[in-house]
């Protein structure tokens, strides 16, 4: 009983601590082992991320390798697991839009999952870094919902 009271006290004390500052932006990468564009895009994203404070950015890979040739709705167990990962990162809508694609990454504001810009293999690491910098400014200094009033440069959802 005493151990339980102590454990509850520790949990209560920890819940009063301020939350650690998390990333400002997340790069949601729709990738797959069989995707040739991913083999170009993924290393460029990594190169660009090396230029930033690791605490400010986070890359989330939604790897659809096992879904190749399958209908996402038909392979519900794996698709649901990927969707739950997306929801955990506040990007359920982004998964709904692009979950059937690869070779694409979406930079979102970490606080609410708001899409800020998209990345494709046509961009260099330098261009990706520039988009990351712009996204960091938007996520840090512009109110949620007003960061991209005219929409992003992302392809239309499928």
From TrEMBL:
Keywords: Signal. Coiled coil: none annotated. The keyword Signal applies. Residues 1-21 form the signal peptide. Transmembrane segments: none annotated. InterPro entries: Thioredoxin-like_sf. This is Thioredoxin domain-containing protein. It comes from Hyphomonas johnsonii MHS-2.
């Amino acid at each position: 009983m005493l151990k339980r009271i102590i454990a509850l006290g520790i949990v209560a004390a920890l819940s009063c601590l301020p939350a650690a500052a998390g990333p400002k932006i997340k790069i949601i990468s729709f990738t797959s082992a069989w995707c040739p564009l991913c083999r170009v895009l993924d290393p460029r994203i990594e190169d660009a991320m090396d230029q930033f404070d690791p605490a400010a950015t986070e890359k989330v890979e939604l790897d659809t390798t096992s879904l190749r040739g399958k209908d996402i709705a038909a392979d519900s167990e794996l698709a649901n697991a990927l969707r739950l990962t997306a929801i955990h990162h506040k990007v359920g809508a982004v998964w709904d839009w692009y979950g059937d694609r690869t070779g694409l990454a979406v930079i979102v504001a970490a606080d609410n999952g708001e899409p800020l810009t998209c990345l494709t293999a046509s961009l260099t690491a330098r261009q990706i870094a520039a988009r990351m910098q712009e996204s960091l400014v938007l996520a840090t200094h512009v109110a949620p919902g007003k960061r991209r009033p005219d929409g992003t440069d992302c392809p239309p959802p499928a």
